[in-house]
């Protein structure tokens, strides 16, 4: 399982999300799932549908419990995690997941994407 986790501002467009994904996925295996915070999932659904990928909504409590490579003060204050994108990708990919790409920021700074890979037992 290769999961693209997203964090984004409320005004992010599908183009912002696609740009963040393209930056994060460069040179990596194809993404099999998308993930984000539960309350943000409806806004990510159009991209999931366009890419024909499953969308996983991660509960806030799980996001806060995942250690992230990035330690954004703004993200920590707003969401209780250093990176929503990284935490969502790791949480959705499973307990033994590893980060393949830390968060990458779209050129318009409206969306971030990180990629995690689930590891088999």
Report on the structure:
This is Cobalamin biosynthesis protein. Residues 2-116 form the CobE/GbiG C-terminal domain. It comes from Novosphingobium olei. Helix content is 38%, strand content 26%. Strands 3-2-1-5-4 form a 5-stranded mixed beta sheet, with helices on both faces. Strand 4 and strand 5 form a beta hairpin. The model has no long low-confidence stretch (mean pLDDT 92). It is globular. It is of the alpha/beta class and 121 residues long. It has helices at 14-25, 41-51, 60-65, 73-79, 84-93; strands at residues 2-8, 33-37, 55-58, 98-105, 111-117. The longest helix is centred in the first third of the chain and has 12 residues, at 14-25. It contains 5 helices and 5 strands, in the order E-H-E-H-E-H-H-H-E-E. The protein has a single domain (2-117), classed as 2-Layer Sandwich (Nucleotidyltransferase, domain 5).
- End-to-end separation in angstroms reads 13 Å
**What order do the strands of the largest sheet run in, or round the barrel if closed?**
3-2-1-5-4
The amount of beta strand, in percent, is: 25-35%
Described by the principal axes of the CA atoms, the overall outline is: globular
* CATH structural class: Alpha Beta
Low-confidence stretches: none
Q: How many individual helices?
A: 5
CATH superfamily: CobE/GbiG C-terminal domain
CATH architecture descriptor = 2-Layer Sandwich
The run of helices and strands is EHEHEHHHEE
Q: How confident is the prediction overall: mean pLDDT?
A: 92
What is the strand tally?
Answer: 5
């Amino acid at each position: 399982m290769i999961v693209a986790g997203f964090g984004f501002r409320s005004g992010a467009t599908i183009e912002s999300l696609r740009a963040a994904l393209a930056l994060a996925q460069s040179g990596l295996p194809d993404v099999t799932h998308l993930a984000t915070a539960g309350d943000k999932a409806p806004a990510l659904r159009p991209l999931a549908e366009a890419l024909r990928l499953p969308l996983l909504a991660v509960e806030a409590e799980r996001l806060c419990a995942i250690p992230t490579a990035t330690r954004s003060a703004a993200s920590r204050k707003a969401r209780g995690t250093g990176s929503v994108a990284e935490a969502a990708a790791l949480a959705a990919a499973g307990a033994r997941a590893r980060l393949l790409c830390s968060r990458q920021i779209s050129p318009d700074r409206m969306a971030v994407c990180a990629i995690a890979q689930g590891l088999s037992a």
